[in-house]
Hints:
- The protein is an alpha+beta fold and about 350 residues long.
- The chain folds into 2 domains: about 1-135 and about 265-350, no CATH class; about 160-230, no CATH class.
- Helices cover about 60% and strands about 15% of the residues.
- The chain has helices at about 1-35, 45-55, 55-80, 85-90, 95-100, 100-135, 230-235, 245-255, 265-290, 300-325, 330-350, and strands at about 150, 155-165, 165-175, 180-195, 200-210, 215-225.
- Helix 3 (about 55-80) runs parallel beside helix 9.
- The radius of gyration is 26 Å and the shape is elongated.
Amino acid sequence: MIIYRYIALQVFIGLIIATAILLPLFSFFDLLDQLDDVGKGTYRVEDAFLYTALLLPRRFIQIAPFVALLGTVAALGKLAVHSELIALRVAGISPIRISRAPLWIGLLLLFFIAALEQFVAPQLQQKAISHRAVALEQSAELGRGLGIWTRNEQNILRIGEMLHAKKAADIEILHLDKDGFLLTHTQAQYADIIENDLWRLSNVIVRTFTDNQILSTTASSVSWQSFLNPEDISTLTKPPESLSPIELFRHVDFLRNTGQEADSYALALWRKAGSALMTIAMLLLSIPFVFGSIRSGLGNKLVFAAIMGIAVYLLDQIIANVGLLFHINPAFTALLPGSFLILIANLWLRRIM
């Protein structure tokens, strides 16, 4: 229908304008933050700009719900100011029918975001993190002196530092019996990852614990059958939000199968779905928002929409952190804000019909 195509085009233009305003703004804040580190190690101004540029897809995904809200409010607000929405209402087109056009644009936006989330944003963000760490001469560890910790049923592994994808330094392996008592403690200066699960440990000290004594042996090289492959190690050194949905799903499964805490990674996975719901919710909310204040100016609509977007963002962050703190189901925590806002938008739309 011509009317729906016209509304969809206006919403699409509104989304482009909102992106052109918000994305450079948030990227500017990223750049300011990176410029503080210029001069440390070999980190230069060019590195700060490169880091900011590589984060652009991730920032777009993060601000997509607010782009949806402000872009749709701007587009429909413009139609309202020019009395085009009133003409549509007089022609018998309800707000619910008008909402179909923005919703279709929202679905296209979600497909675009899904492609970025799986194939573009994680790779570029991880490249940005790695490049920055190398320039600042930082190691890929969870905390200075703490290293990377993981385990399976009978082994606890600590990697002090990943020198590169196939070589680690400062290795500790604690082997436990079925009752959880320590049997051996292996310490190695280096580990070369030969195959997916075969490691060659160098400069090794093995301490064996018995009832009466501790036996210590040394070796220049020892082979060890690891329960980790290089992909698992790489995942452990990356922030949860920088992983693709498939990487997160696999890592959550790995953590749960080895009896480890997986809530933070599970929450990061479900929040990607929650962000999609939030984007749809913002699109739907913008329609009754515009109709409910049809006599006010476009500037007022945008100001109120910005305030509402900030409030929703803060609420979403609070709910996520509270859920993680109290070990609430990650799916429930991540999907609750978007689902609730979609319900509110539907009720609001029906009220103004």
